[in-house]
UniProtKB/TrEMBL annotation:
Cofactor: [4Fe-4S] cluster
Pathway: Protein modification; peptidyl-diphthamide biosynthesis
Native source organism of the sequence: Coffea arabica
Name of this protein: 2-(3-amino-3-carboxypropyl)histidine synthase subunit 2
Region of interest (Disordered), ranges: 476-499
Gene designation: LOC140038281
Its job: Required for the first step of diphthamide biosynthesis, a post-translational modification of histidine which occurs in elongation factor 2. DPH1 and DPH2 transfer a 3-amino-3-carboxypropyl (ACP) group from S-adenosyl-L-methionine (SAM) to a histidine residue, the reaction is assisted by a reduction system comprising DPH3 and a NADH-dependent reductase. Facilitates the reduction of the catalytic iron-sulfur cluster found in the DPH1 subunit.
Family, as annotated: Belongs to the DPH1/DPH2 family. DPH2 subfamily.
Keyword line: Coiled coil, Iron, Iron-sulfur, Metal-binding
Superkingdom of the source species: Eukaryota
Coiled coil: 33-60
Length: 499
């Protein structure tokens, strides 16, 4: 491996030098941390060389290595960088390219090995056979190999020039390796529009291309073309980035070229099952009474707005909402809050999907929460994992002749009565329903307990639980069998005799 080329030593040094950064944080994922010392040494030498060749007299930038990020390693760790008062972050490895809030970042994707000729041959043969135009998408670590694949495709086309009539191919491009802080998220600039985004052009006679952005890639389709018309050819691993594309473009035909095995994977049905699982979780979330909002990022721009919006959404649906800040969630952590019926995970698109089969309660995304808790919302099949898509996208409440209310005896919202004759009939029906439900509450002790529980504040409720954690405050409060066993520290139990 060409070390300096893989870690883009010259480009990173030029970026630091051009912006006069004095304190730089280097963020490594776990698998690249072993090379951090070599990277720091090479960067220092290159920065020193650049300063010697310039007329400026200033100190070399201080470099700080960051590891063990609080959340997903694909996001820029702004919290860790703030601890050393860094001016910027150099992010190494796989990146979701989510916009930051306070600090700029330069992303080094790396250069994963890729057999360009073999990939081009698989792409050409399958593309010609499908008869559809092809859109090539790829993991960012394979961006370096796209020029070689394009050149190899020309060779393939020359070999089979008689069979390539009408064969069209489009390549996505990396939007930018530099992340600029964004204090406010603008819908049209920061996320993919599922129906495409058209450039405004005063000349109506000129064709308008439809532009898309997702997962750090950007591409455009000619006027009148839809994503469903294309064969999506993914180059890379079966990872979170690939899952993001599968769910977002679930109506498209998708194949994957495995760069490690060097072969084409045409069966992506296993990944497609994820969408069915997500739909099941949405339906299950509709029955929740208490909802936990998990903070999954402290750096992606707009995350605070998303948390506030989710809180308002849950409260408006007549449910309790609690916000949890606990780092990377796992079954053991969330098991401390068994009262929560469902959790909403606010994070970047590539860490948003948590396999909640091992958790006590399902974990959904903000997009799924919008469908679950907005009465009248239905899943059309469109899907988005970018929580920025949800910001400012909640529909206004629509007044319908069908009135929705929460029914305790049916265990959810019901829409089985219509109000057609004005306010008087509406008030009469609502009064009757209110009286009926109050009577049922008085007769049902379980419902009465539920009502008392919901009346408590979050702190009072959690403090009143019979289970308080692993700390044992008094041995008198437990039955005798609980105390069977050794006591003291493992380094020296009380009943052990010193030798």
């Amino acid at each position: 491996m060409d070390f300096e080329n893989y870690y883009e030593i010259s480009l990173v040094a030029d970026f630091i030098n051009a912006h006069n950064f004095s304190r730089v944080a280097l963020q490594f994922p776990d698998e690249l941390l072993k090379d951090s010392r070599k990277v720091v040494s090479a960067l220092r030498q290159e920065l020193h060389r650049l300063l010697q060749n310039s007329d400026e007299s200033r100190a070399t930038a201080k470099l700080y290595v960051m590891a063990d990020t609080t959340y997903g390693s694909c996001c820029v760790d702004e919290v860790g960088a703030a601890h050393v008062k860094a001016d910027c972050v150099i992010h190494y490895g796989h990146s979701c390219l989510s916009p930051t809030t306070t600090i700029p970042a330069f992303c080094v994707f790396g250069k994963a090995p890729l057999k360009a000729s073999n990939c081009a041959e698989s792409l050409y043969n399958y593309g010609v056979k499908s008869g559809k135009p092809v859109l090539v998408l790829f993991g960012l670590e394979y961006a370096h190999g796209m020029p070689d694949i394009k050149e190899a495709l020309n060779v393939e086309a020359m070999r089979f020039h008689d069979s390539n009539s009408g064969f069209q191919i489009h390549f996505a491009n990396v939007t930018n390796s530099v992340i600029t802080p964004s204090a406010s998220m603008k819908l049209e600039n920061q996320h993919l529009m599922l129906n495409g985004e058209q450039d405004n052009n005063e000349d109506s006679s000129q064709k308008i291309d439809t532009k898309f952005r997702l997962g750090g890639l950007g591409w455009s389709l000619p006027e009148g073309h839809r994503m469903e018309d294309y064969l999506l050819f993914w180059i890379g691993l079966d990872n979170s980035a690939f899952t993001n594309f599968i769910l977002t473009f679930n109506s498209c035909e998708i194949v994957r070229y495995d760069a490690i095995e060097g072969c084409l994977k045409t069966d992506v049905s296993q990944q497609a099952k994820i969408l069915k699982r997500r739909y099941y979780l949405v339906e299950k979330a509709k029955d929740a009474n208490m909802v936990g909002i998990l903070v999954g990022t402290l750096g992606v721009a707009g995350y605070l707005d998303m948390i506030h919006q989710m809180t308002e959404l849950v409260t408006r649906a007549g449910k309790k909402a609690y916000t949890f800040l606990m780092g990377k969630p796992n079954p053991a952590k969330l098991a401390n809050f068994p009262e929560c019926d469902v959790f909403i995970y606010v994070s970047c698109a590539q860490t948003a999907l948590l396999d909640s089969k091992e958790f006590l309660a399902p974990i959904i995304t903000p997009f799924e929460a919008l469908i679950a808790f907005n009465r009248g919302s239905q899943w059309t099949g469109a899907y988005s994992m970018e929580f920025q898509d949800v910001i400012a996208s909640q529909p206004a409440e629509v007044e319908d002749e069908t009135e929705s209310r929460f029914s305790f005896f049916q265990g959810g919202y019901v829409e089985d009565f219509k109000l057609q004759e004005g306010k008087e009939e509406k008030d009469a029906v609502l009064s009757l329903v209110n009286v009926t439900e109050k009577a049922l509450l008085l007769q049902n002790k379980d419902s009465e307990l539920l009502s008392r529980r919901d009346a408590k504040s979050g702190a009072e409720f959690f403090a009143a639980r019979s289970y308080q954690g692993l700390e044992i405050h008094s041995s008198d409060s437990f039955p005798e069998p609980f105390l069977i066993g050794r006591t003291g520290k493992a380094s020296g139990y009380e009943d052990e005799q010193s030798k």
